UniProtKB/TrEMBL annotation:
This protein's UniProt keywords: Aminotransferase, DNA-binding, Pyridoxal phosphate, Transcription, Transcription regulation, Transferase
Organism: Pseudomonas guariconensis
CDD domains: AAT_like, WHTH_GntR
Descriptive protein name: PLP-dependent aminotransferase family protein
Taxonomic placement: Bacteria, Pseudomonadati, Pseudomonadota, Gammaproteobacteria, Pseudomonadales
Gene3D superfamilies: Aspartate Aminotransferase, domain 1 (3.90.1150.10), Type I PLP-dependent aspartate aminotransferase-like (Major domain) (3.40.640.10), Winged helix-like DNA-binding domain superfamily/Winged helix DNA-binding domain (1.10.10.10)
Family assignment from sequence similarity: In the C-terminal section; belongs to the class-I pyridoxal-phosphate-dependent aminotransferase family.
InterPro entries, per database record: Aminotransferase_I/II_large, HTH_trans_reg/aminotransferase, PyrdxlP-dep_Trfase, PyrdxlP-dep_Trfase_major, PyrdxlP-dep_Trfase_small, Tscrpt_reg_HTH_GntR, WH-like_DNA-bd_sf, WH_DNA-bd_sf
Length: 465
């Protein structure tokens, strides 16, 4: 089964592997019941990370091409064309169930590069109390549709919160969404067309890359520096390509943890005005802010900046509530698309968040998070230095640090990580073309786990141990 991966191709390696395996099955060159190479063997044969193979196998299991058998491996599934809908669904659920059983063996691994906080850090008591209070309210408030712009009481609370960080936005300029991913999807669908050119930060957010690729939008990478996007490269790309939009994190950038400086922010806005550029400012980590911060939306006087944020990182990934701030005309277009594609957002979820904002429980919970994250960040940075790791930049907040161990590529780091029951997120995931990288995103909330400590120690520079 010869698989050929083109590392110079714009198509991500995971997608190439998935498509080639599926083609072999479709052409019946791999028949039902045939066993595929193990994850480690396939990764070694193709010189890719095990995470790449896991993702490809995962996609094929989810789409019914493969079946995962716990403790045995992956096998070509028997396709069931022509089944009644009920039987087809039942078969799909059985396949999915076998995959879940297989993945249970990976649940014990520490996900050191994940993008969420530990469950024990969540404001479980406060969320439960807000849920109870909302549940006791009017029945229609639980079951009715949400208004197109979102719940008025929540948008009023958001208006007050934005004012506290010097973003002037009345409730009519605020649109609620089902988290930040929904907000990005609405923006891409509304502002861009296939073939349009946009600027993305490198390294940057892989879900954004996937979304833009899905809509056939061309991405131009702007290197992320310790103080924000590289202004010289940004100006060159603006002159040569006239891109429509720049997507950026001002605060606690994902994955580097860096934050925008005032000097870079002012120049960004000048360039946006000179080249008629719109900026999408993703401030999803806004509530981790502790101390002064520079935001483009605060400095923007021409409404070129579209500001977006979310509560999924601080409250719960399943409590999908986010929001957008833009000029009234754009908000109207976004609201119309929101209703056409999804009817609306969850009235119940918005009431829960609004309740926590109104009674102060949300403010208190994020204050605790900031302190805890700050302590873990400071401690981990000291440990990384002692173990000989290189840090891209020392963040002053947030939950990510971007690191590498000089002299070790990702394959070497991953071997050490798996030996210590640690699952890494490869640096290639944060490149818009999936280019190899020896940098890693580390979530500081998990850095004191004994498995993480063992990994840092053994994967650091030998001279520093």
């Amino acid at each position: 089964m010869p698989i050929v991966l083109d590392r110079d191709c714009a198509t991500p390696l995971v997608q190439q592997l998935t498509e080639q395996l599926q083609a072999w099955i479709e052409q019946q060159r791999l028949r039902p019941g045939a066993r595929l190479p193990s994850i480690r063997t396939q990764a070694s044969n193709l010189a890719v990370s095990p995470a790449c193979v896991i993702e490809a196998y995962d996609r094929l299991v989810a789409s019914g091409w493969l079946q995962a058998r716990h403790g045995t491996g992956f096998f070509v599934a028997e396709r069931k064309p022509g089944l009644p809908l009920e039987e087809e669904q039942a078969w799909g659920e059985a396949v999915d169930g076998s995959w879940r059983q297989f993945r249970e063996g990976h649940d014990e691994l520490l996900k050191l590069g994940c993008g969420w906080l530990p469950s024990a850090w969540r404001a479980n008591t406060e969320v439960a109390q807000a849920v109870r209070l909302v549940s006791r309210g009017k029945v229609e408030d639980l079951f009715d549709y949400c208004p197109p712009l979102g719940l008025a009481s929540l948008r009023q609370q958001l208006h007050k919160r934005l004012a506290r960080i010097d973003i002037a936005a009345g409730p009519e300029r605020i649109l609620t969404t089902q988290g930040a991913s929904h907000a990005l999807d609405l923006l891409v669908r509304t502002l861009l067309r296939p073939g349009d050119v946009v600027l993305v930060e490198s390294p940057g957010y892989y879900n954004l890359f996937n979304l833009l690729r899905q809509h056939q939008v061309r991405m131009l990478p702007v290197p992320r520096t310790a103080s924000g996007p590289d202004l010289d490269e940004l100006q060159r790309l603006l002159v040569e390509h006239s891109p429509r939009v720049l997507f950026t994190n001002s605060l606690y950038h994902n994955p580097t943890g860096t934050s925008l400086t005032p000097k870079v922010a002012y120049r960004l806005l000048e360039l946006a005005r000179e080249h008629d550029l719109r900026i999408v400012e993703d401030d999803i980590y806004a509530d981790f802010q502790d101390g002064p911060a520079t935001r483009l939306a605060t400095l923007d006087s021409e409404q070129r900046v579209i500001y977006m944020a979310s509560f999924s990182k601080t409250l719960s990934s399943s409590l999908r509530v986010g929001y957008l701030v833009a000029d009234a005309a754009l908000i109207g277009r976004l609201a119309e698309l929101k209703m056409v594609t999804g009817i609306g957002t969850s009235r119940f979820a918005e009431q829960v968040v609004g309740q926590m904002l109104a009674n102060g429980s949300y403010r208190k919970s994020v204050q605790r998070l900031r302190v805890r994250l700050g302590q873990h960040m400071a401690k981990l940075l000291g440990q990384l230095e002692a173990f000989g790791w290189e840090v891209f930049c020392e963040p002053y907040g947030g939950m990510f640090v971007w690191v590498r161990s000089p002299g070790r590529d990702f394959a070497a780091l991953e071997r050490v990580a798996l030996d210590n029951a640690v699952l890494l997120t490869p640096g290639s995931a944060f490149d818009h073309q999936g280019a190899p990288s020896d940098w890693l995103r580390i979530n500081v909330a998990y850095g004191q786990d004994q498995r993480a400590q063992a990994f840092f120690r053994y994967a650091g520079r030998p001279s520093a141990r």
